[in-house]
Amino acid sequence: MEYELIIDGEIHKVSVEPKDGKYIIDLGKKRIEAFCEIIDPNSFLLVIDEKTYPFYMAFHEKKIHLSVGGEKFVIQEAESKKEKRFEREGVDIEGKKAICAPMPGKILKILVEEGEKVRKNQSLAIVEAMKMEHEIRASIEGFVKKINFKEDDLVDTEEPILELEVKD
Amino acid sequence: MEYELIIDGEIHKVSVEPKDGKYIIDLGKKRIEAFCEIIDPNSFLLVIDEKTYPFYMAFHEKKIHLSVGGEKFVIQEAESKKEKRFEREGVDIEGKKAICAPMPGKILKILVEEGEKVRKNQSLAIVEAMKMEHEIRASIEGFVKKINFKEDDLVDTEEPILELEVKD
Amino acid sequence: MINKILIANRGEIAVRIIRACKEMGISTVAVYSEVDRKALHVQLADEAYLLGSPAPLESYLNMDKIIEVARMTKACAIHPGYGFLAENSEFAKRCETEKIIFIGPNSKALALVGDKVESRKTMTQAKIPIIPGMKAKGENLDDFINQAEKIGYPVLLKASAGGGGKGMRIINSKEELKSSVEAGMREAKSAFGDESVYLEKYIQQPRHIEFQVLADYHGNVVHLFERECSIQRRHQKIVEETPSTILTPELREKMGEVAVKVIKTTGYTNAGTVEFLLDKDKNYYFLEVNARVQVEHPITELTIGIDLVKSQIRIASGEKLTFKQEKLSQRGHAIECRIYAEDPENDFLPSFGKILFVKEPCGPGIRNDSSLYSGLDVTMHYDPILAKLICWAETREEARKKMIMALSGYVILGIKTQIDFLRDLMLHPEFISGNTHTDFIPKYLSDWKEKKGKKKFVEQALIGAAIGMLNKGKKGARVEKKLMFDPWLSLGNWEIGA
Amino acid sequence: MINKILIANRGEIAVRIIRACKEMGISTVAVYSEVDRKALHVQLADEAYLLGSPAPLESYLNMDKIIEVARMTKACAIHPGYGFLAENSEFAKRCETEKIIFIGPNSKALALVGDKVESRKTMTQAKIPIIPGMKAKGENLDDFINQAEKIGYPVLLKASAGGGGKGMRIINSKEELKSSVEAGMREAKSAFGDESVYLEKYIQQPRHIEFQVLADYHGNVVHLFERECSIQRRHQKIVEETPSTILTPELREKMGEVAVKVIKTTGYTNAGTVEFLLDKDKNYYFLEVNARVQVEHPITELTIGIDLVKSQIRIASGEKLTFKQEKLSQRGHAIECRIYAEDPENDFLPSFGKILFVKEPCGPGIRNDSSLYSGLDVTMHYDPILAKLICWAETREEARKKMIMALSGYVILGIKTQIDFLRDLMLHPEFISGNTHTDFIPKYLSDWKEKKGKKKFVEQALIGAAIGMLNKGKKGARVEKKLMFDPWLSLGNWEIGA
User: Fold this and answer.
1) Shortest Cα distance, chain A CAs vs residue C349, angstroms
2) How many CB atoms lie within 10 A of CB C464?
3) Which of A144, B85, D73, D334 could form a disulfide with D302 if both were Cys (CB 3.0 to 4.6 A apart)?
4) Which domains can be identified in chain D, with CATH numbers?
5) C331-343: average pLDDT
6) Where do runs of H (alpha helix) occur along C291-352?
7) Which residues neighbour D209 within 8 Å (Cβ) at sequence distance 6 or greater?
């Protein structure tokens, strides 16, 4: 099987084939033979050239959370990235801009209404988490197209709190 | 559901019914309401009258291994006990006696042959485990009916190494 | 004798206190909010009672409810841990009235050390060195101008009722004074309901040195030496160690004596911490008394060989201290790192969610005070501290290396933590040489980023992930013949949460 | 400098050594037998090499193979742990020839302390008190009769090459002498290939007291005080503690000096243990030198504050000891319990199989040296030790209570252990009062049975099991709505093993 895996924004092609209890791995620049022993559902032992690498892995919401050698990775399949509904950076092709919370939390206040014109850096909402308040500001000038949540709702960092639209 | 559970040789009847996220338990002499929270696949939190009892449980070969309050239990359903093929204590109705190892291990030596007459306490086999040797002796006088293993075989405590037969 | 204690707290400190009680044969009553029903402190306590909704005022700050549970369960004492009600003199007084032992200082001493301006006065009278500054809150702008001149710029504006950096401002010149004082007063008003502010000399790159003290009800006071807590981020300690790399034996003895004097002066009882700032010329200034068991108490326990939580309980029971000052000594070196649910790349904003998997480090000399487990929900409602990792070794250098190893072995999947940040901190040349001060992080690590592209195990991660994907796809596929059990068969487990 | 060590062992001690190496920045090479492929020491080491089939001679006793792996991986030193090759002077010599550092005593001293009769001679010459007995192995029956009269009955027959109780016999009178000597010789012959036996005075209800020593290559020898290991079963230590409840400061100092003298007399280097028997009148007799790191070394580490494994490595590197005798002191009290895969109700026969679930105790002052994990296969091939649980506290009584709490929190499902037995031992009045001796278990606990019918949590167990059965039956049944993940859905997990 071939996979396109994204680590820290970079796409890596990996091909893996099971063979005689081992795995033949092709990383493009090199081919590797590896054993993989299962310790428990989240703990594994990767053996390459008699070197042992314990690693820990959990699948969650299309992401692979993985720790090896004291380093932590959040890995995604290249396809699943395309599914993402909103582009965090910049404005999308339709001139819309999704505003997400920088951290998951509870919406304390929504400071604007749908249709309202906002200037850049204007406060749009206040989100609270772990005793800290955080202001959500407009990253562009535009109009409030849609508000997806109300006060006291819980939000994560993926679902936009509101959408802005650039009008000329 | 009603269960007959065996703990340390004693049979206990327990009936349990889920209700509104709780469990109604009938232990015969008393009825109890309990919550059961799942911490991980083997760890649970039993809540009875605001007292919390963390317990740990694993199912294995028709037995429930359970630990609560620092005490350990191996629990069986009453039916499954009947399935046991051999009676460890005494001779069965056909005059046969199964000889099992007192601990799992490797058979170092079988000291008798099928058909051979043995006296009580005669050494029948030597089993080794964890650097310790253990002699298996005849618990009755009789004849060797059947030998189920050979030297270097691994045995557990359930499957008889050999069977003796009382002949008159 | 105390035979049953209600622990009015949550998280690792509640777990720590419950363990001490168990060893002393004392029954424990836990309290919890709705989101903490499966929390480790609930699992470990003999009894546990729901306080209410997650909001602290409804649960862990709900005095009425907590007192009610204590009365109902016949708990004769309450341990408040740290945070929440720990330094609330009203609650301490309430316990006194209800004849429930408050395991902490008496309410009078608690009220005194809690008021910064008042305690500065008391200390001045007792000739304890304090940071040069105003003797009282300022009344008008001229007051502030005159005092600032007298103290000498830069000066630090502080809220009288304050803490946690709220209302605090550095003022470098007369020009900045007016607007800063006004802004500080507004902030103090909104944070504490009290606009009083005052000025202090601003000490540059100071070290934060504190002394642990124990005081019984029989007039015995000892100090258990220092902890250096200079590594801070936004006035929040994140790394603590003892002994301090800067103290000479003479200075240690002198500051210890002063700490004991502070405690005697205030009539303080039980465990407490006397905080000092130490400037570049090794002048020390009394800062405040922390009237509780500190987050960083384990490093003292490991080097002095005394259990502080048990000591708190014994003192509260009326027992006398069994050790004399001259018998106490420091052995080896201990470092503590606080593990927070924070994203160090995103300005240390809290990161919460489900912990998909946790593996905690262990081994000789490693202590991990935590309340984590795989599957735990880290909620937004409380302080983002997850665990405290403490390493003891014969020397500082060995303790530091042990800490690096322990941090490398701390696996938390599912939420962000600052573990990698802490490891880089441990590897920083200035930390290695012991040159620590409260501006350490802004000075050396303000632009810290995870070593993207510099990671050493990318290949192994890709291989592991690919093997995982491969077997995840094929339900029932067996990875190898002698598999003892097959997680691929039980995918439900992998998908914790959702 | 040593930069890479091969650890020629398995289980908890291999893990212990690997951790010390990691902290010292030393690379580690693990070796393993076919059944140990997933063992924790394999997981933790930087590299791991298969030695061969599970039989020790093919794997952990396979000198050729181990030396070969060391050469291949360029490991410059081998740490043998305890057991296996640890006290094999041939292996030590082999390492010396191959210019690989053997982390243990030099081969000459190792050979000397390994021969009981020879070392008795050496000690007599050095005026070290030994148990009254024969100066050499007996040549004929008259020899034995005369010597037994001289020593006084009861006497103890011991194999010259012996250990572990093989060939050992108590002889109460002249009448028993002939048959006992003959039987003892036969046993010794078959156990060790050497029929030599000798007689010693039989000490009744002695205490086993041993002193930890460290000796560098520069002539510096220190002792790190005593460990009392009187609680034994079939000459196997199961509970150890320090300080001993019986030693006075004077006796401790005297015995410590003798221990150092023993080490100097034999030209011993590295870490070692000098074992003594102490009779009812507090006479002490040298028994033997254990030429390795001991299973019970952690209790010394916790009370003295020195890492013994690191010290071993430093000494082997040629470093000088950095501490003087007069600077060393004991702090607090430590107890160790050895957790064995044994069935205490079935004559302590080994119990092996799959560990279905393990939860190890943790908390301040609790150290758990183990190599366990859920799913581990405990095989019949090796020593049944699973873990060592060590508790440190300010006083013996507190350490004992901490141990009871820790044992109660040690959950091992799937195989039998003697954890409950150990807990009852900790609760025994004679242990509480410190009246320990080597006959403690036969005298007080020989008829120990698990408290069947006296268990306190039968009801909770029944309820838990019934809820488990109920949900096991219904695949996909949800126990509660807010379930974070559902183990009932993933039954595969429960059925660990086949």
Assistant:
1) 7
2) 26
3) D334
4) 4-103 (3.40.50.20), 132-201 (3.30.1490.20), 207-449 (3.30.470.20)
5) 96
6) 297-304, 308-316
7) D226, D227, D228, D229, D230, D244, D246, D247, D255, D275, D276, D277, D278, D284
- Residue C60 in this model has a pLDDT that exceeds 90: yes
- Choose among B48, B68, B105: nearest Cβ to D380: B105
Percent of chain D with pLDDT over 70: 93
| Strand blocks (E) in chain B | 2-7, 10-19, 22-26, 31-40, 43-48, 51-60, 63-68, 71-77, 96-99, 105-110, 117-118, 123-129, 132-137, 142-147, 154-155, 162-165
Are D37 and A37 a contacting pair at CB < 8 A? yes
pLDDT of residue D92: 96
- Per residue in D135-170, pLDDT (tens digit) is 777 778 888 999 999 998 999 998 877 666 677 889
D133 SS3 class:
strand
Q: Do B50 and C493 touch (CB under 8 A)?
A: no
Determine the residue type at D94.
R
Q: What is the mean pLDDT of residues B114-136?
A: 83
Measure CA A160 to chain center.
Answer: 13
Asked if D216 and D315 count as a contact pair (C-beta separation under 8 A), the reply is yes
Catalytic residues of C: 292
Domains, chain A: 2-81 (3.30.700.30), 96-166 (2.40.50.100)
Model ipTM over 0.85: no
pLDDT of A161 above 70:
yes
Residue pLDDT, tens place only, B30-65 = 899 999 988 888 999 999 988 889 999 999 888 999
When CB atoms are compared, the residue of C44, C45, C374 closest to B40 is C374
| Contact residues on chain C for D20, CB-CB shorter than 8 A | 364
Best to test chain A binding among C352, C460, C491 (most A CBs inside 10 Å)? C460
In eight-state DSSP terms, residue D471 is H
Q: What is the DSSP string of C102-158?
A: ESSS-HHHHHHHH-HHHHHHHHHHTT--B-SB-SS---SHHHHHHHHHHH-SSEEEE
Other beta carbons within 10 Å of D290: 20
Strand ranges for C361-446 from DSSP E = 366-370, 377-378, 385-393, 411-413
- Residue B1, chain D, CB below 8 Å: the answer is yes
Query: From the candidates A22, A40, A50, which should be mutated to test the interface with D, based on the most D CB atoms within 10 A?
Result: A50
Residue C384, burial from CB neighbour count under 10 angstroms (0-12, 13-18, 19+): buried
Average pLDDT, chain D: 90
pLDDT per residue as tens digits for the range A100-112 = 887 778 888 899 9
In the prediction, which pLDDT does C160 show?
77
Binary contact (C375, B40; C-beta < 8 A):
yes
Q: What is the mean pLDDT of residues A32-56?
A: 91
Helical segments of D63-173, H only: 63-73, 89-97, 107-114, 116-125, 141-151
DSSP codes of every residue in B53-67: EEEEEEEETTEEEEE
The yes-or-no verdict on residue C97 having pLDDT over 50 is: yes
CA torsion angle for C92, C94, C98, C103 (degrees, to 10)?
A: -10
Is C20 an 8 Å CB contact of chain D?
Answer: yes
Residues D419-429, mean pLDDT to the nearest whole number: 96
| Interface touch C307/D393, C-beta < 8 Å | yes
Helix (H, G, I), strand (E, B) or coil at B89: coil
| pLDDT value for C297 | 98
D11-30 pLDDT, tens digit each: 999 999 999 999 999 999 99
- Determine the pLDDT at residue A139: 81
Residue A18 C-alpha, separation from nearest chain D C-alpha, in angstroms: 20
| Chain A, nearest residue to D31 by Cα | A50
Name the residue type at position D458. Answer: V
CB contacts under 8 A, B 31-50 vs C, are 37, 39-41, 43, 45, 47, 50
